[in-house]
Design brief:
Low-confidence stretches: none
Distance between the termini: 43 Å
Structural class: alpha/beta
Bound molecules: 4'-deoxy-4'-aminopyridoxal-5'-phosphate
CATH class of the largest domain: Alpha Beta
Strand order of the largest sheet: 4-10-9-8-7-5-6
Shape: globular
CATH superfamily of the largest domain: Type I PLP-dependent aspartate aminotransferase-like (Major domain)
Number of strands: 15
Order of helices and strands: HEEEHHHEHEHHEHEHEEEHHHEEHEEEH
Radius of gyration: 22 Å
Strand content: 15-25%
Mean pLDDT: 94
Length: 453
Amino acid sequence: INDLDNVIRADRDHVWHHLTQHKPYETKDPRVMVEGKGMRLWDASGREHLDAVSGGVWTVNVGFGRESIGKAISDQVTRLNFFAQNVGSIPGAMFAEKLIERMPGLSRVYFVNSGSEANEKAFKMVRQIAHKRFGGKKHKILFRERDYHGSTIATMSAGGQPERNAQYGPYTPGFVQVPHCLEYRAQWDVENYGERAADAIEEVILREGADTVGALCLETVTAGGGVITPPKGYWERVQEICRKYDILLHLDEVVCGVGRTGTWFGYQQYGIQPDLVTMAKGVASGYAAIACLVTTEEVFNMFKDDASDPMSFFRDISTYGGCTAGPAAALENMRIIEDEGLLANTDAMGARLMDNLHALKDKHAAVGDVRGLGLFCGAELVADRVSKTPAGEAQVQAVIADCMAQGVIIGATARALPGLNNTLCLAPALIATADDIDAITDAIDGALTRVFG
Ligand code: PMP
């Protein structure tokens, strides 16, 4: 790239950026990222950054600049780049099998391109099952306060961050909210908080009528809504409730999936068995646009008999689900995680990151709570520890800007939402070293001192 000034001008004049909190044509520095290697990035001015958020939105799990993934994509797309998913492809079949080997109890992979789309497809399956088996009655989908499932209308209808959604209605009917399970902001004064929060789901099911509820859709760890790791006892009870009322458990692993939490999937740490799992970001670490919906043979069989029905989900399509670059990249991504021992590294570095965050909490009154699983961690900032009043947006943004000035990119949750945007969010690549982790928390330490005193 020779003329970076021209690139920056073209970007400013013509690109409508995502996730901007200011005027859309005024994206803040660095405007353009040019190159990445491992956990480091270089912007158009040549400045180096340490990336603590894996490409901004917790995606580049195996780090930047992986030549072997580039080669796997290039070899595949020059041999055969695409054919629709009514036939198979070599990388599609091989990746599906590798994935299923790591997801006991599940057996079918449906390829799409984004997390939103994977969730949409899951909702469509649930709706069609309701029609097939229950005369359309068991069609409602429960979602949880603070969870996020995507940016399309149906996934926003299942969105637990209402302020974000308020101006896009009307929404799709049949989505019903259940309470969040963040113990730090407890809604019940009880000892076994996890079970109580799960019982709140049962209360909603009984209120709505169990014969109207088809699925419960939850993020394994609520990511953008506050880095919420469910309390002890929650998942076991959730599973029990789903089985009791014949409700499908749909876990959104778009963030947790493919290594981020130190196991292949986040739910595997809780010993539960979902019926539907959606994944996206980490599937190919951002090297290709691939997302998956994975389900059981039992769900698959519900559709199998009427494959000839023109309305069957079997006739559904996602054009780019047939793009071979995705599974080619995903296969190599998985090989890297395995061969480099990145699950164990995530476990160890995640523990170190949590230790460091606890130390920051001991030192800074502004850190109200720290939470995390594997390398997905958060520090909730408060104006006051006793009242737990969330830190103001300006202060949270000042901490992020201070880190950026030190060369460390961190993020915060629910960026647009007052009251929910006060949790610093850290999701470094799974290759992070102890020095990287310490550099990230040292930067936050300095920023907290400067912003909060
Ligand atoms: N689910 C979760 C938990 C997410 O965090 C996201 C994206 N931030 C999505 C779904 C939507 O994924 P995508 O942006 O690929 O549509």
